[in-house]
Amino acid sequence: MEIKCKNYPHYYNQIPYQGTVHRRERLCVPRVGNNADKFVRRPDASENASGLLGFVNKVKTKVVQPVREYIHNYKKNIKHTYEHKLIYALIEKELYGRNTLDALTHDSDKMVMYLLGFPKSFVTKYHRKHSEHHVESGKKMNLTSMLCDNIASSPEFKPEKKYSLREYYKKSPELQAVRGFKKLLEHYNFGENIDFQKIKALKDSQYKGMKGVSLAVAKCLSLILLLK
Prior knowledge:
This protein is an all-alpha fold. It is 66% helix and 3% strand.
């Protein structure tokens, strides 16, 4: 707090009495307001900092925080995709008794793009536009892959999802329009006969932090090189 002083004591007593108290007050208030000691609040250092402190605050706001957020999302997206790939492979084996090439290639493009630092919005849009298990691609649907992917994306494995596969199918005209998909869903009872707890336990036993992620990344990259 900074104090700016003017040496004018006894304002009130120096003003002569002129008939009424109210008259005296009307003369007193302007003089006191113009001449009294003034308390001036200094600017908030956090908002108007200068010098080294201001530079440090700007670096934290403009550089450090965005970098931390980017690193957090980077690791989260890779981990999330890797776990989904594991669950997909486990469900495929549970349903069909074996794993196909789809278990290895599933969401590999997402894995590589996340590793390269692409944002989630771009990765999701690109993946859906080019994958045979997504209706948005406009391609001929890979029904077996669609089934495994939709079961692996149910609330049992992705808590952010609101509807079970059976409920989601009823609410999705896009899925209902895919020829043969309803028959496949009914044949496997919408995946509801699967022991979800067993799948989760198997996933947890195979997921071993960054070592597991690194192995999955190596497989994805080697597969891409082989397919070229």
